[in-house]
Amino acid sequence: MRKIVFLATAASAALALSACSKNENAADAVGDAASGAVEQASGAVDAGAAKVDEAADKAADKVGEAAGDVKAAGEDAIKAGAAKVSEGADKVKAAADKVAQ
Fold first, then answer.
1. Is the dihedral of CA 67, 68, 71, 77 positive or negative?
2. Which residues of the chain fall short of a pLDDT of 50?
3. What is the tens place of the pLDDT at every residue in 10-32?
4. pLDDT score at 5
5. Whole domain around residue 67: which residue ranges?
6. Residue 67 lies in a domain
7. What is the pTM of this model?
8. What is the tally of structural domains in the chain?
9. C-alpha angle 93/94/99, rounded to 5°?
């Protein structure tokens, strides 16, 4: 009888250990899945950050191009203004020459 109780107890202990082992494996699997999900989320954040950086670089390039366009337009306006001033000076000189005659 003692042997039967001992064997039953040993069998129960073995089953319990087996269940614990399966639970540990399940816990490890859940932990691995959670770790994988965190890695995927981190990768997605990194990819999003790279896209933001890329968009910022493109925007900076566009701003630089626009600034170049504004500078060129300003230079053209200055040249046109200088030409008008030169024309005006020529007219004043011509009028002064007429008065002097």
1. negative
2. none
3. 666 665 656 665 666 666 666 67
4. 53
5. 26-100
6. yes
7. 0.43
8. 1
9. 95
